[in-house]
Specification:
- This is SPOR domain-containing protein.
- The chain is of the alpha+beta class.
- It has one domain.
- It contains three helices and three strands; from the N terminus they run H-E-E-E-H-H.
- A three-stranded antiparallel β-sheet has the order 2-1-3.
- Strand 1 and strand 2 (about 25) form a beta hairpin.
- The chain is elongated and about 45 Å long.
- Mean pLDDT is about 85; it is low at about 1-10.
């Protein structure tokens, strides 16, 4: 199998959260540098900012505990 065929399968059906447009996009969208993901579903992509905020808060609290 060619590399081209493998790449097509890996990216098929992935979803991204675009930070430029603040919306969920399919694999064909803005450049990846402007997006979070990939995610397996639209719902997972839609929750990207909330998950990132929750992780940042947890990391901040962990750093405070280390002080």
């Amino acid at each position: 199998m060619s590399l081209r065929g493998r790449i097509g399968r890996v990216t098929e059906g992935q979803w991204w959260f675009c930070l430029t447009h603040m919306r969920v996009e399919p694999d064909q969208g803005c450049p990846n540098k402007d997006r979070m993901g990939p995610y397996a579903t639209q719902e997972e992509a839609a929750g990207a900012l909330q998950r990132a905020a929750e992780r940042n808060k947890a990391w901040d609290e962990a750093e405070e505990d280390d002080d």
